[in-house]
């Protein structure tokens, strides 16, 4: 193992992927994670890993076969519905067999992805229950940094990697830029044991995702593993909407009804779409969605960098956040390995890594912003249906 002392803050997809890739190259590192254990909290719903995104990192990490065991290729099928319930596209009906090509993007539950990455790490890689408060230079002239946690201080790291997500504490050392409200709030609801408890919903959503996009609102119902579905009812509204809209979110049953009745945002939707909201009744979580400005960058600082959401937080409306995070991890691992193998200083290599990441982040954040505009426009559903149809045609032409 290398003598470099590397700290990774955060055991999300970015931090775990980086740790695995470094360990594959015999470079040691420690992850510091604020959650008390791997079972600490719900990790979120399903994510799709793209061939040139998350899958490329897993391939280099030697985990692609493991990924295939847990992923759900059938989860890629989209169904697009207009606000009144009219079917715009049923991808599975138009192309029942998806070819395993460049557009391949199987779904995997975040919990499964995390467990697979955790299982791949050497024992004691992760220090759980370590909430980072601040990072500071070890001494005014040293390139090393100390980490201040809620309960301890760890000294003299050669490299600190902030993989600590939206509200990154490591980011504060590099830039004053903070995430801002994206203009979209999501009401996330779960339907558990869905085949047994909500057979209609199970059938309607199918193996993949059902999307409704409309002016200022969207509904997304996604099949997750473990016989469950998550429905996201989203509105494009000011940040205080959750508090001011007259819905008491602590009463999920009545909250759901108010979303689809009276002057609720989904009151004039088709009955099927209303059922998606009403039948996803096992949990309700409100999420105001935040983002960093598109094209965020900072001046390189020796011994500290960021990857994933901490570097370029974006909304989920292009479905790329995890993928970009894992590609960041892949590129950073390659940079660190190069410095080690060639016995050269990490500084210029890290600066070059960051320049490339800024470009990648800007490109995908721009795509995501365009996706948000499309998802919340009156013609968003039709446009997406046309795009998917073009992809199907191209895919059929290739095969
Ligand atoms: C509703 C929703 C749906 C999404 N769907 C998709 C999708 O379909 N496809 C896709 O590609 N992306 C999707 N995303 C985006 C994706 O979830 C993120 O881009 C991805 O999780 C980023 O990974 P990360 O490791 O950078 O950050 P995170 O997953 O946020 O992980 C950060 C880790 O750091 C830890 N941490 C935070 N602060 C500290 C601290 N102070 N000290 C120590 N540890 C700390 C956290 O506990 C966490 O474990 C979605 C996001 C949302 C909100």
Which stretches are low in confidence, meaning pLDDT under 50 for 5 or more residues running? Answer: none
Radius of gyration: 22 Å
Cofactors and ligands present? flavin-adenine dinucleotide
Compute the number of strand runs.
17
Helix content: 25-40%
Amino- and carboxy-terminal Cα gap: 45 Å
Number of contiguous helices: 15
Characterize the overall form: globular
* CATH level-3 fold name of the largest domain: FAD/NAD(P)-binding domain
Overall pLDDT confidence: 95
**Number of domain units:** 2
Describe the strand arrangement of the main beta sheet, using strand numbers: 5-4-13-14-15-12-16
- Relative strand content: 15-25%
Q: State the CATH class of the largest domain.
A: Alpha Beta
Q: Main β-sheet, in a few words? A: 7 strands, mixed
Pfam family, one: FAD_binding_3
Protein name: Putative monooxygenase
Keywords: FAD, Flavoprotein, Monooxygenase, Oxidoreductase
GO molecular function: FAD binding; monooxygenase activity
Please give a structural write-up.
It is a single chain. By secondary structure, the protein is of the alpha/beta class. The chain folds into 2 domains: 6-45 and 110-178 and 299-374, FAD/NAD(P)-binding domain, CATH 3.50.50.60; 180-291, D-Amino Acid Oxidase, Chain A, domain 2 (2-Layer Sandwich). Helix content is 38%, strand content 23%. The strands form 4 sheets. The chain has a 7-stranded mixed beta sheet with strand order 5-4-13-14-15-12-16, with helices on both faces. A 5-stranded parallel beta sheet has the order 7-2-1-11-17, with helices on one face. A hairpin with a 5-residue loop joins β4 and β5 (87-90). α1 (13-24) runs parallel beside α5 (110-119). It is globular. The N and C termini lie far apart (45 Å). The model has no long low-confidence stretch (mean pLDDT 95). Flavin-adenine dinucleotide is lined by residues 9-15, 32-35, 44, 47-48, 130-132, 163-165, 169, 186, 308-309, 316, 319-323, 325. This is Putative monooxygenase. InterPro entries: FAD-bd (IPR002938), FAD/NAD-bd_sf (IPR036188).
